[in-house]
Design a protein that fits this description.
Order of helices and strands: EEEHEEEHEEH
Radius of gyration: 15 Å
Structural class: alpha/beta
Largest sheet: 6 strands, mixed
Helix content: 10-25%
Number of strands: 8
Strand content: 35-45%
Oligomer: single chain
Distance between the termini: 14 Å
Length: 151
Amino acid sequence: MRAVIQRVLSADVTVDGKTVGKCQKGYMILFCAVEGDCEQDIELLARKTANLRVFCDDDGKMNRSVLETDGEVLCISQFTLAADTKKGNRPSFIKAMSPDVASEYYDKYCDCLKQLGIKRVQKGIFGANMKVSLVNDGPVTIILDTDTWKR
């Protein structure tokens, strides 16, 4: 399971010109479930996301989590994070989880973030052609991959 976490001042997602999700200070997350992921990965990734310390404390050090800053989240599903670019120039997405299960995992990941204490979690529309806008703060961008914690 993969997530690209971007610390943002604001972010929004539109589908067919209509805003379907937005957040203020917090995270804009790109989420992807890959073949071999399981339900335990959802909680592991959500816990790591919620507790990741990338917000500044009073001394200007990245020591605070999105929970501690009462931050918001906009989470977008993005199967292209499963891209395999080992051969040729055209990415292969064969490692992406099937859409029916990936959609379920996406919803569960967002629900888990809420259960962990993030008060406002907004989403895009799974499988839709979305337009995402954000103001990256820092910029700070962190890539999380549950496979790296299983080794």
